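stage 2 :: seqdesign
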C-alpha cells in the first residue's frame, strides 16, 4: 500500500512565495512508487487541496482530511515545506501533534524557539567551539534604544526582526545616525528586534538531517556575495551571489564545523532537515552561529539541494529518507 502524504505549502507571511516554489520542486522529486502525494495549501482561513483540474477542495480541520470523489482521504504523514508561519514557527506542528499525524520537520517547541533568533542563541551559546555575536534583544521601539545600543555594542551592527525569515526588514548600520531608521524598518516586521555586532568573516550555510537513526552533516556551502550581506535580493536573484559547494575550508575547519553543527542539531532537538548559517571569522577562524532554519528552501537552486547532490545522493532518496524517518 502506498502511503498517502500531504505536501503542505502556502503560509501566512511573505515567504509563502518561496514555499510554493519549494513545494513544486519537492512534488517533482517525491517517489511516486512509494507515496501518493496531495498538495495542501494553507492560507489564513483557507486550507485546501487543488485537484489536477484546478478544483479547490476544502480541508476538514477536525482530522485534516479531504473529500475526493465522495471518498474521505486521511493522510499517513505530512511533508512540511511551509516556510515562516504557521509551518516553521511550531503552530502547525502543534496542530498535527494534537490530531496525531507525523510530519517531516521539528516539533512544536523546537520550531517555536528556533523562530526566535535571540532565544536560539541563548540555548546554543555554551556549545564548545561555538561563538555568538554580542547582541541586544529589544521588545519595543522606544527613544532610549539608540543610546543604549551605542553604549553597549560596537558599530557596525546588524538590525533584524527577531522572528523574520528571508532577511526581510534587515539592515546593516555603520553610522549612529542610520540606527533609528533601521530600528523602524525592523519593528515594522516584528515586535521584537535583535541588534548584534557585525562579525567579519567568511559566510557559510550547512544542511544537517537525521534519517535511519543517523545524523548526517552535509558539505557546507560558502556564500560569496557582491552585496554587503545575504539579503532577500541576494538570496533570490541569480548572479548576485556566488555559492560554492563544498565551501572552501581546511580539514580542521570541516571537522570542527561538523562537530558544532551536529551538537546544535541535538541540543535544539531538531528533526528532519535543517540549515545552519554561520561565519568563520577572519583572522581567528572562530565559528560564529548566525541562525538556524528548520524548514529550509527546497527549490532547484536551494543550498540543501546543492549539498545533497554534493554527497552523491539523489534528491528523491533524500526526501524518501526524511519521510521514512517520521514514521520511526
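stage 2 :: out
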Amino acid at each position: 500500500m502506498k502511503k498517502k502524504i500531504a505536501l503542505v505549502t502556502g503560509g501566512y507571511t511573505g515567504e509563502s512565495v518561496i514555499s510554493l516554489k519549494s513545494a513544486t520542486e519537492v512534488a517533482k522529486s517525491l517517489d511516486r512508487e512509494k507515496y501518493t502525494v496531495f498538495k495542501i495549501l494553507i492560507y489564513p482561513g483557507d486550507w485546501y487541496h487543488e485537484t489536477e483540474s484546478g478544483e479547490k477542495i476544502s480541508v476538514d480541520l477536525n482530522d485534516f482530511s479531504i473529500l475526493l470523489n465522495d471518498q474521505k482521504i486521511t493522510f499517513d504523514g505530512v511533508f512540511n515545506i511551509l516556510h515562516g508561519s504557521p509551518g516553521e514557527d511550531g503552530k502547525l506542528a502543534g496542530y498535527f501533534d494534537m490530531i496525531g499525524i507525523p510530519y517531516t520537520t521539528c516539533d512544536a517547541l523546537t520550531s517555536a524557539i528556533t523562530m526566535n533568533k535571540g532565544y536560539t542563541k541563548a540555548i546554543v551559546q555554551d556549545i564548545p567551539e561555538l561563538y555568538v555575536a554580542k547582541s541586544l534583544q529589544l521588545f519595543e521601539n522606544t527613544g532610549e534604544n539608540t543610546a543604549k545600543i551605542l553604549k553597549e555594542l560596537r558599530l557596525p551592527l546588524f538590525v533584524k526582526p527577531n522572528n523574520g525569515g528571508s532577511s526581510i526588514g534587515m539592515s546593516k548600520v555603520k553610522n549612529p545616525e542610520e540606527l533609528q531608521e533601521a530600528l523602524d524598518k525592523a519593528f515594522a516586521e516584528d515586535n521584537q528586534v535583535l541588534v548584534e555586532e557585525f562579525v567579519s568573516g567568511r559566510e557559510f550555510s550547512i544542511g544537517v538531517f537525521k534519517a535511519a537513526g543517523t545524523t548526517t552533516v552535509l558539505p557546507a556551502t560558502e556564500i560569496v556575495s557582491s552585496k554587503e550581506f545575504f539579503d532577500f535580493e541576494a538570496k533570490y536573484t541569480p548572479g548576485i551571489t556566488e555559492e560554492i559547494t563544498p565551501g572552501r575550508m581546511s580539514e580542521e575547519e570541516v571537522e570542527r564545523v561538523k562537530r558544532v553543527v551536529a551538537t546544535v542539531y541535538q541540543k535544539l532537538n531538531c528533526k528532519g532537515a535543517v540549515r545552519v548559517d554561520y561565519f568563520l571569522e577572519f583572522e581567528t577562524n572562530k565559528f560564529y552561529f548566525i541562525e538556524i532554519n528548520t524548514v529550509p528552501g527546497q527549490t532547484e537552486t536551494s543550498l540543501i539541494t546543492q549539498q545533497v547532490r554534493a554527497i552523491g545522493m539523489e534528491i528523491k532518496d533524500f526526501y524518501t529518507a526524511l519521510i521514512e524517518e517520521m514514521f520511526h
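stage 3 :: structure notes
- The mean pLDDT is 92.
- The chain has ten helices and 18 strands.
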